[in-house]
Design brief:
The structure is a single chain. The protein has one domain: P-loop containing nucleotide triphosphate hydrolases (Rossmann fold). About 35% of the residues lie in helices and about 25% in strands. The protein has 12 helices and 12 strands. The strands form 2 sheets. The protein has an 8-stranded mixed β-sheet with strand order 6-7-8-3-9-10-12-11, with helices on both faces. Strand 11 and strand 12 form a beta hairpin. Helix 6 packs parallel to helix 7. The longest helix has 18 residues. Bound molecules: iron/sulfur cluster (SF4). Iron/sulfur cluster binds next to loops.
Length: about 325
Amino acid sequence: MALIEIKNLKKYYTTPRGLLHAVDDVTLDIEKGKTLGVVGESGCGKSTLGKTLIRMEDSTSGSIKFNGKEITGMSQREFKPVRTQMQMIFQDPYASLDPRMSVSQLIAEPIQTYHLAKDKKELDDMVGALMDEVGLARRLVNSYPHELDGGRRQRIGIARALSLNPEFIVCDEPVSALDVSIQAQILNLLMDLQAEKNLTYMFITHDMSVVKHISDDICVMYLGQVVEKANYQELFINPMHPYAQALLSAIPVPSIHSKKERIILKGEITSPIDPKPCCRFAARCPYATDQCRETEPELKPVTGNPSHFVKCHRAEELAAAQ
Ligand code: SF4
């Protein structure tokens, strides 16, 4: 069952040079209790998609349903109880935490904002329980963010996101600012919490090796559009969009015998401002034809696999030729 249903979602920004299509006609579902990985290079619109989805940014048009209810047209008052169900974990835990607040104050803040504790004792108990859940030692309760390492700061961010008992969390590059040794601990924590609380995640990252560990389904974004989406195994075994193939080729292989070659993309990135109706990857795609430069491909299911979608005129022809 889908917890999140997005249809034709657009988020455009007016700039002096024209309309910037940050998120352009995105349609996808996220199943309850599952993780949708969203990958793509910087500026592809993945973070804007996450923020628009939980209404930190207003959408330009399109539909977002949460638990079957349309949320785009809700007033602030109607949306307030839904907001507690949809939380976000940010990339840079240091930048997203107020340095003047202690660990306990930071974790208590959302609980106080929504008046979820009846008194100080209940608030302290809730903060303590959240610290236990995310693996923060209680002796750190009066510490400040600058006294903690990146992993502990991100654990505070996760505790804040959990404090309102959400169903859905947008994890926006939650491990990319952390040392590699700490990344695995935070990923494992997120997966344990998901199993325990049946959480649903949108996990945004530019790192394909990270997304592989945590995702059930993956969608690949390029210049505001989804160009491929599939179950994670299918996407890793059989990527069909030339951009997804290039992203996957960049994953290091721990073997000197591997013959895998990295695909280096050449050509300029097309401007996301007032883009022409054509394939947005055409300027960098080694397989581009006149059709690609003149008409925009649809995101269509692959023949024989209705859950694998690709936005490419030539995907099936190229796959058959390999
Ligand atoms: Fe390349 Fe054409 Fe496919 Fe775009 S539609 S990815 S340019 S082959």
